[in-house]
Amino acid sequence: MKTIIFIGTNKSGSSREAIRAAGDLGYFTVLFTSNEKQLRQREEYKDVHEMVQIETTDIKEMKKKIAELSDRGLVIKSILSFVDSFVHIASELQDEFCTNVSSTKAITTMENKAATRELLQNYPFTPKHFIIQPEEFDTYSIESMKLGYPVIVKSPHSTGSKDVLLAKNSKQLMRHMNKLHDNSPYEPVILEEYIEGEQYLVEALVHKGTVKIAGFMKQEVTAGKRFIITGYGVMVDVPQMMKTPVEQIIKSIVKRFGLENGAMHLELRRSPKGWKLIEINPRISGGAMNKMLEAAFGFNLVKETIKLYTGGVPNITPSRKQHIYTHYVIVSERGKLEKVTGKARARKAQGVLDVYVKPRKGTVLIPPLSMGHRYAYVIATGDTLLQARRNAEDAAKEITFHMSEEK
Predict the structure, then answer these.
(1) pLDDT tens-digit readout, 166-187
(2) Closest by alpha carbon to 375, among 346, 348, 324, 337?
């Protein structure tokens, strides 16, 4: 039986949709998970043909289990992950058990923000930055760096904006640096210049060295304690003056990383100094990304990514072009969720294609410290991107989280 093993998944979003897509492509799906909640809710994962409880950071144990699955007669065609830091682990396992069309070295480097900055440090799209190694932490001089304020402080393995902090003065800078150093004393701390400008996300596939842009999104960034993306506007016709320089940036990155095949998404800012790379990840974005691209263009990006990683030819030629905007809902105060109202009204609102509410009754909701603290989204369309945005935001206003004080 042709089989794809997935390392980790979220309950919804791109990683879960990838498992469904694999099933649609005729593969037997196996999920390796250390999430006990998923095991308890096994009946809610009918698209997962076999769920295996295993520590997803224990490569030795996973190798043993993969060998057992092979001995049972399963033909392992690919080992994949669409979840943050598991992508390189899946690639490493793929190197041993099946044909890997991508590069574990490139993926591992890309997942490390410090290594990525160092590899790309001589390119004009790389922001000015300094990497403070653990052994240098007590001897560095902030003044000598001449970054000015505000300054971005981040961890090399930050995902979902969890450890990306803004320092507006020296006091905040020291506090943020000490926090990251205390949390991970053996990891470097990255300091970067703050880039002014509109922020964009670009989804891309690389097939045999050729870059194919799957989507170009303008992002709405909400700045609180963290930088949280609360809006995505899919651009169906990207102006050539924007598309050409971004394509050149991606081609430069692909060449520098030595990446022949793979998936990636980039966050960039369009600044007065030109396009600047904020970060890059070797996978499709999570959340509603796959759904919004399918609504806009008609192709299923996770399905095409699976085709790529199993030796096929991905096809992301649009079968339609539809203006799409996705608005995420966050909360401003902490509380225990009692109930959610307005979902039905939101679904019936003008232009709405999809409404998703994540938390269940009893969940403690908090103002966002990461992308994982976005609790609902609305995907909407319109005659223009501006109209799609208005439709999504108006529908989202119908959704109310009724909370009580946490006891």
Answers:
(1) 888 888 888 888 888 888 888 8
(2) 337
Q: CA-CA distances (angstroms) from residue 90 to 48, 59, 118, 180, 210? A: 17, 9, 24, 27, 23
Confidence (pLDDT) at 176: 86
Nearest to 248 by CA among 273, 234, 266: 266
Q: Which residue, among 234, 281, 216, has the nearest Cα to 253 in the 3D structure?
A: 281
Q: Find how far residue 185's CA is from the centre of its chain.
A: 25
- The answer to whether the bond into 150 is cis (omega within 30° of 0) is yes
Distance CA 155, CA 203 (A): 23
* pLDDT confidence tier of residue 375, bands split at 50, 70 and 90: very high
Q: What is the CA radius of gyration of the chain?
A: 21
How many helices, marked H, and strands, marked E, lie in the chain? 13, 19
Give the position of tokens 């002014």: 196
Report d(CA 176, CA 173) in Å as an integer.
5
> Helix, strand, or coil here: 107?
helix
Query: pLDDT tens-digit profile of 225-267?
Result: 667 888 999 999 999 999 999 999 999 999 999 999 999 999 9
Q: Which residues contact 251 (CB under 8 A, 6 or more apart)?
A: 211
Predicted local distance difference test score (pLDDT) of residue 168? 85
* Mean pLDDT calculated for residue range 289-313: 97
The gap from C-alpha 313 to its chain's centroid, in whole angstroms, comes to 23
The pTM (predicted TM-score) of the whole model is: 0.91
Token pair, residue 45, equals 């994962």
The beta strands (E) that lie in 235-286 are given as 262-271, 274-281
- Which whole-number Å values give the CA distances from 55 to 60, 63, 203, 282, 385, in the listed order? 10, 11, 30, 22, 43
Q: What pLDDT is stored for residue 133 in this prediction?
A: 87
Residue 295: what are its φ and ψ, rounded to 5°?
-65, -40
316 neighbors 306 (Cβ within 8 angstroms)? no
**CB contact set of 319 (below 8 Å; sequence gap of 6+):** 297, 298, 299
Chain centre distance of CA 93:
21
For 357, counting Cβ atoms within 10 Å of its Cβ (0-12 exposed, 13-18 middle, 19+ buried), the class is middle
146: helix, coil or strand? Answer: coil
